[in-house]
């Protein structure tokens, strides 16, 4: 830290009966009142350097021997006034980054300019400020912090802006050219110099963002202005900006959830406590929204985990909708980096009883699906999607254009990761008894079909939801299971589904026959139904010993839907009266579909499609089994 001493006389100020005075053989002839403190001083040393005191004394009607001057709004208070007074008497004073702001504002108030006397206090303070304070790293930061006590005066005298410019220039310059006096920054400098001062290590130290921890001491308004100045320089990598914001957020946004719970507990307490908690929440909200506005536009500048932590904080602090949308958009651009715990955003709304903010996650998924290009295996993107991307903010246009040029394989890989992430997220939120069925289905359908190589995780989520919502009726269970593709279930999942009494019977039949078809297609032997399947069909009033008629092989099959079992879609195609009645009942219920679900029925029309060859094999095998049974 730099400091400067002025004057040579010893300090002879003292307090007597609540009055500050100075030891002197000459009696005092002026009384100065500064914020409740009286000073008995002498006109000659003061008026010879303070133009304002000259004017006030000339306008005063008091006796010349005991004039009283009132200074009610003195900047910096009694400490700053006494420093200026000691300078007038030639008493030694020490100036540093901690008191230069108040001293400079006080000198400006007293008009201690060069017009009054050469080498006056304002001139000496400006020389010290320009040559020492602005050239020092820690000095600039401390001086900038002290401007908070006198914001209007500091802005008018350009102290705040000049400190910000000095700090930004040091961040943008080579660290070897910066006078680092802070302990953390000094350690970095010592580490660099201890290794022969090589340029590579200097650049390495600069790449670590050596300045971020020091700037984290600033209040949010000063920090915001400083970061804007650093970003406008265009020399600092976006990832360093992101690291600096993360350090600042971890410093000033700790234990938000605990603070909110404490606030709720004190809502029934006194109004004073409630106002205090509300003020604290408002400050944190402003801080959070300021951090969001500083986030770099480049993808990957900050981690997805950090963005989701900010989103959780924004949800708790009830930040503005624009801040939430901005965070959700940025999370969507790199959603493949997220974990399930990151996406579990607790709901703080009192209008619904859901445990998690599913709507926010839905917004994130929508943003993820809008960015990038679809892989060749998926349907071509429509013009509407392109127009949506063009309507995004101008700040991200160049970035999005570069991202859209990425290889389709990278986009496809990210969608595969997100599909797994969403299915595991569904397993967590499915336990919420207040989660509506429509939201669960909407989340699952956000992922395109090609992104799910298997449906095991989705099946687990459906199973958990069915267990947590036993009140679902038959149609609702069917509606839920329409998002499940039995062809993509593993053998273990099929075995579990075949014994799952919560699933609709039609789904169980699909699983059973697909497993039989898969075994036949693999060249294996098609055996009789497993005992657990027989028990399940028996529980539903179906005699498993009476197999259905051979499946039709003449049914025309669409090229994109060559897995339909028309023989089981129509009740007339089976000779088992109980099974025919059950499936007819299912078809009747399936026809009663809400208006908003009509568009989804096409997906359900092909319950299960068996290849032509497996159908013939089923017909022969079951006919053989039936003949053998009749002979016995």
Automatic annotation (TrEMBL):
Domain (NPH3): residue spans on this chain: 209-518
SUPFAM superfamilies to which the protein is assigned, alphabetical: POZ domain (SSF54695)
Pathway as given in its UniProt record: Protein modification; protein ubiquitination
Cited InterPro entries: NPH3/RPT2-like, NPH3_dom, SKP1/BTB/POZ_sf
Region (Disordered): 261-281
Keywords, sorted A to Z: Ubl conjugation pathway
Family as reported in the entry's similarity comment: Belongs to the NPH3 family.
Protein name, as recorded: BTB/POZ domain-containing protein At1g67900
Native source organism of the sequence: Vigna radiata var. radiata
Lineage of origin: Eukaryota, Viridiplantae, Streptophyta, Embryophyta, Tracheophyta
